[in-house]
Amino acid sequence: MNTETLQAALPEYFAPWVQSLGLMVEAFDGQSVTLRLPQNPALSRVGDMLCGQAMMAAADTAMVLALINHFGEFKPCTTVQMNSSFLKPLSKQDALIEARVLRAGKSLAFGEIDIRGANDGKSVSRATTTYALL
């Protein structure tokens, strides 16, 4: 796996509105993928706070890329469950979204996602996910 392959998956497998988030593959290792979500006024609320909807879309996208990284290829999947907790607002900085595969079997995959500020490294949201592998 390489950064270019993971970045190329965004236009290949995701809807145009997800692509418009401007997500960029920042890093990856054997179990995780980290994306950067650039600060964008179109995704912000009052006080330049990143909206929760953008965070969850980025988290879901990062997890699919983590599954591609895990399997070495795209496998059709769908989100079955996503449980998120918002810890604090994120303002005036990019977000880093780290998605980690906890377990992937034949029909289900489980993961966790941490969203943190790119400048200060503080967690702003945590999520757990379950995906059906189709």
How many E-type strands? 6
Would you give the CATH topology?
Thiol Ester Dehydrase, Chain A
> Percent of residues in beta strands?
35-45%
Question: What is the CATH homologous superfamily assignment?
Answer: Hotdog Thioesterase
Contiguous runs where pLDDT drops below 50 for at least 5 residues = none
What is the succession of H and E elements? HHEEHEEEE
The span between the termini is 22 Å
The major beta sheet can be summarized as: 6 strands, antiparallel
Give the averaged pLDDT, no decimals.
97
**What is the CATH class?**
Alpha Beta
Strand order of the largest sheet: 1-2-4-5-6-3
Structural class: alpha+beta
Keywords:
134 residues; alpha+beta; Thiol Ester Dehydrase, Chain A; 6-stranded antiparallel sheet; ACOT13; fatty acyl-CoA hydrolase activity
